[in-house]
Amino acid sequence: MPSLRLPRARGAARAAGAAPARRTKTPLGRVTATLLVGTLAALGPILEGALGDGRGWTIGLLILLAAPSLARASGPRFHPLDPETYIPAAYFLSVAYSPILRLLISREFSLSSHETAAMRVAYAGAVGCALACTALSRRQETPDLQRLVPAHRPKATLDQDWATILVGMVGLGLVATWIATIGVGRFFSMNYASNHLEADGKGLLTGGWHLIGVAVVYLFLRVVSLRKAGLAVPRVVSLAGFCFFVSFLLNTIMGRRGPLVWTVLSVALAAHAFGIQIRRVWLAIGMVGVLFYGIVVEGARAEQGSGLDAQISSASAYLDRIENPLEIGELQRVYANLVSVVNEQPPIISYPGESWVNAVLILVPKPLWSERPLGLAQRYAMWTAPDLARRGAGFAMGAAAEGYLNFGLAGTAIEIAVFSALFFMMPLLVAGARGSPLLARAAAVNLASFAYNQFRGELTALLKIAVSLGIALLATVVLTSVVAHLRRGLAALGPTRRRSGRRLRDPRLGPSSALGR
After folding, report:
1. Per-domain residue ranges for the chain?
2. DSSP assignment of 464-480, as one string?
3. How far is CA 245 from CA 77, 226, 282, 308, 497, in A?
4. Is the alpha carbon torsion for 377, 348, 327, 93 positive or negative?
5. What gap in Å lies between CA 455 and CA 467, rounded to an integer?
6. CA distance 237 to 475
């Protein structure tokens, strides 16, 4: 295989010598940018004092969420898949889209007192998000193809390829086991709420979707790296990746739109971090497609379990009833829950920080601890609508609301900052680092793809996702060693078998055929 190393330009030695000086300046630049963003945090209270009725909080929030893209380490840019733009945009959708839309279409251009109080909490979260994204911003790097495409086996299906395919198959097996515990016939005839009830306490089985997701993105990156190196893609890699991706369509049948959307987003984030330029126009088309898909699924699941014809008719009727496609019901409900939590302050935690402690305790599987604590969203559902909660309905408990319930405005800023830094920003930095292996990139973008879903969720759900992805990562590493050991063992036995065959073969039978070799 020809070397992929590019020739050094003249003066490369001088540039290499100057590198340490540039590295010493970078932290100072990040510190300065972070201090500047921290200074901008004072804009919200000042503007609200001058404008009132939630206008100041709204304008200040928009400025803060735009700040990381302007203070970006590689220079100002607003690309939807850049970490400094993607993460604040995900937070914006979870807490600010609905009230800002309401503000724009209102005659008085103002929010109610209850909504203004909620926007104050959302602003505190925006401060944490902006500071975390600015402080961790780094320049995007070109992937090291020489490391990602081994020179000694450039065209072979690698041990890690086989291990990843096996992990994906294990994930499919876990999901199939969950469906078998319900019964295939009953599974396809259940309504949406019953489907959620059946998943309760079976996270070990439904976590199989995360194993499949890692396999999909890894195999996609494997294809991309081989294509960039000008090499052919092994057929088993392409076929396995396609089959795993198609399996996510089962979620649509279940009335769940999230898993398929997060998988597509994971692939897009992986491609962007790998240096593949995705034009904004295609991202815009994709967003419209996602919106349409989400609306159709939400309409169809009203008749879930009643047959395909009934679901299609329900989706069509739901589309006909929509007057303003900009009003997204899910975002409205998430914001309504934040307004309720901030203004009514439901007594669903016993002491400050309880939900953060319980988030770790809930990781214990329910079969091992049947009396484990309830999640915050479950407690909120039982408080606000116990009858619906018992029938499987749920109410999204956003991260901003969870932080506020624990430690007020400071808790919201801390929780959003931790989410932004540890679970979204740092994984995307790993995915975009020059020397990151494909497996690490795949797990990282899968975790980061849940940004919106987790800004509108609570800590316990995010920890479960992180644990599932960690298991997928560890299982792939272990299986890679097993596959490599088996391959070396078979390779060592191969010559012995051939020599043994030549000794035992009667010369009068002639040479062995090609099929026997």
Report:
1. 26-141, 157-324+434-484, 329-399
2. HHHHHHHHHHHHHHHHH
3. 31, 19, 20, 22, 40
4. negative
5. 18
6. 18
Provide long-range contacts, Cβ within 8 A and 24+ apart, for 240-243: 240/165, 240/168, 240/215, 241/215, 241/216
Please check whether residue 225 is in contact with residue 154, taking contact to mean a CB–CB distance below 8 angstroms. no
Q: Which residue has the tokens 């214990």?
A: 364
Rounded average pLDDT over 307-320: 81
What pLDDT digit, counting tens, does each position of 427-478 carry?
Answer: 999 999 998 999 999 999 999 999 988 898 889 989 999 999 999 999 999 9
Name every residue whose Cβ is closer than 8 Å to that of residue 274 and which is 6 or more positions away in sequence. Answer: 143, 221, 224, 225, 441
**Identity of the amino acid at 121:** V
Q: Does residue 79 sit in helix, strand or coil?
A: coil
CA dist., res. 311 & res. 386, Å (int) = 28
Torsional class of 238: left (φ above 0), alpha (ψ -120 to 50), beta (otherwise) = alpha
CA distance 125 to 119: 10
User: 204 exposed, middle or buried (CB, 10 Å; 0-12, 13-18, 19+)?
Assistant: middle
User: Of 454, 466, 465, 445, whose CA–CA distance to 265 is shortest?
Assistant: 445
Q: At what angle do helices 113-135 and 83-95 cross, to 10 degrees?
A: 160
DSSP state of 421: I
What is the value of pTM for the model shown? 0.84
